[in-house]
Design a protein that fits this description.
Mean pLDDT: 95
Strand content: 25-35%
CATH topology of the largest domain: Quinone Oxidoreductase, Chain A, domain 1
Helix content: 25-40%
Number of domains: 2
CATH superfamily of the largest domain: Medium-chain alcohol dehydrogenases, catalytic domain
CATH architecture of the largest domain: Alpha-Beta Complex
Radius of gyration: 20 Å
Structural class: alpha/beta
Shape: globular
Order of helices and strands: EEEHEEEEEHEHEHEHEHEHEHEHE
Number of helices: 9
CATH class of the largest domain: Alpha Beta
Oligomer: single chain
Low-confidence stretches: none
Length: about 325
């Protein structure tokens, strides 16, 4: 089978697109004929060696996938050949990735794809959707009519958080960089949009939410905690899901006097049952059209190294050239 893999960590150029043996399902594993995958920042961190994990060699990159069940192991109970499935949480913690024509995935990380949902949509929503759901429902416990600010609402995670927050009945303030992204955030349902390239976030937020916001979702790798704490309402909650190496100053006094809390989490450490609960909601919202993954572009799997370079330049280099998910198809 064709696959995008590495033999050693390094820049995008270490990715090889070539032939590897087709995996065989055993135990509770499902062999999926991959139809679509999507790129996530964590994929680039693992490939570059920035995030250290023990990786099999050769190591197929990628977390997300959508496709069709080709075969199942003897202990599989939830799927059978011909079923359409989607999932995430691959390509880490010793598991092989998904950027190949076939992927062997434990059934606990797979979910049924609704009939009218395209594989590209399912792959694009996988990691970002489960992440957004875990952050909003499990950690922030966002309530109807609460106000949430999403700092960086035009990316894959941010645009998904925006949509799910609206589905949950919250008032959404989105921050984005650029006029075209203002329009995109409004189209996704944001109640207010702040363009931080032309507006002062602090000034605009004081006008929109003078009492502060109940939840602040931070997507940047280097949060400005003075800005965040000033913008939170009493008992406000901050969600952190980026910035592994960040060590910014923190305003301890204003934070604890307000009774605020910070919730940091990574999606791939959540229990399979928690992720399945999130996936069930995501599937329903995708099927009903209430949730629409923001796809920046669709590329062939052979261009994995190019896609990694684009994602890295956007995430680390802050190029601003990627708005949504990069999806690849074998």
């Amino acid at each position: 089978m064709k696959a995008a893999y590495i033999n050693e960590t390094g820049p995008p150029e270490v990715i090889i697109y070539g032939d590897l043996p087709e995996p065989k399902p055993s135990g509770s594993k499902v062999l999926v004929r991959v139809k679509a995958v999507s790129v996530n920042p964590i994929d680039t961190y693992l490939r570059s060696g920035t995030v250290k994990m023990d990786l099999p060699k050769p190591f197929i990159v990628g977390c997300d996938l959508a496709g069709v069940v080709e075969a199942v192991g003897p202990d599989v109970t939830r799927f059978e050949p011909g079923d359409r499935v989607w999932g995430s949480n691959q390509g880490l913690l010793g598991r092989q990735g998904t950027f190949a024509e076939y992927a062997c995935v434990d059934e606990c990380w797979l979910y049924a794809t609704p009939p009218k949902v395209k594989d590209e949509q399912a792959a694009a929503i996988a990691l970002v959707g489960i992440t957004a759901h875990l952050g909003l429902v499990t950690h922030a416990q966002l309530q109807r009519r609460e106000t949430i600010l999403i700092h960086g609402a035009s990316g894959g995670v941010g645009s998904t958080v925006l949509q799910i927050a609206k589905i949950l009945g919250a008032r959404v303030i989105a921050t984005v960089g650029g006029r075209d992204r203002v329009e995109a955030a409004l189209n996704l349902g944001a109640d207010h949009v702040i363009d931080y390239t032309t507006q002062s976030l602090e000034t605009a937020l004081r006008k929109i939410a003078p009492g502060g916001v109940n939840v602040w979702w931070e997507t940047s790798r280097e949060p400005d905690f003075d800005q965040v704490v000033a913008g939170l309402a009493p008992r406000g909650r901050m969600i952190l899901m980026a910035g592994r190496s960040a060590r910014p100053p923190f305003p301890v006094g204003p934070f604890y006097v307000k009774g605020c809390s910070i919730h940091g989490f990574v999606m791939f450490s959540a229990h399979p049952d928690e992720q399945r609960d999130a996936a069930d909601d995501l599937a329903d919202w995708l099927a009903s059209g209430r949730l629409k993954p923001r796809i920046d572009r669709i590329m062939p799997l052979a261009d994995t190294a190019i896609a990694h370079r684009m994602q890295e330049e956007h995430t680390i280099g802050k190029s601003g050239k990627v708005a949504g998910k990069i999806v690849l198809c074998p």
